[in-house]
Amino acid sequence: MGNINYEQIEHAVRLILEAIGENPNREGLRDTPKRVAKMYAEVFSGLNEDPREHLKTVFSEEHEELVLVKDIPFYSMCEHHLVPFFGLAHVAYIPRGGKVTGLSKLARTVEAVARRPQLQERITSTIADSIVETLNPHGVMVVVEAEHMCMTMRGVKKPGAKTVTSSVRGMFVTDQAARAEVLSLIKQ
Fold first, then answer.
1. Cβ(167)–Cβ(124) under 8 Å?
2. Domain GTP cyclohydrolase I, which positions (predicted)?
3. C-alpha distances out from residue 100 to 12, 29, 62, Å
4. Catalytic residue selected from 53, 81, 147, 181
5. Is 64 tagged catalytic?
6. Would the pTM count as exceeding 0.90?
7. Are 80 and 152 within one domain?
8. Catalytic residue list contains 150
9. Is residue 1 assigned to a domain?
10. Which candidate in 13, 16, 139, 152 could, as Cys together with 171 as Cys, close a disulfide (CB 3.0–4.6 Å)?
11. CATH code for position 98
């Protein structure tokens, strides 16, 4: 996968294990550095991917009304602590000029953006901007809700707390009724 240096990750994981007082050579940990390197290659695979590429598959369809794909599960890694955060993304857009993308392409865009060291706010805005730049729709609205393990397993230790972020572009900025329609459909 891309520019992943597996040996360097394995070495770093061994150093971490030693630094916390563990023996990286004991049976249960012997292959941990290799497993972590493979896992990091997978969970950070979005670093080598342009999320806009997925949106370039378009179809001509005279549809200029709301398209919403909701409850798209995603998993990401907090760039501040390198622990997971996960949740659901809801992606809405109003096509322009008969230019619609495949529904699965919206989910793939979410995944490409989430699979890198991230902040939830950046995931939300990057998805919205990618759709605007590629499809030039009348409007885009992205809502992301996630639970952050950095708040659950350490720090304030508040499991179940959800963070909700939104990015609004185009007509959704000024059209309160259109924005309200998306939010009510997400809640259903």
1. yes
2. 9-186
3. 45, 49, 9
4. 81
5. no
6. yes
7. yes
8. yes
9. no
10. 139
11. 3.30.1130.10
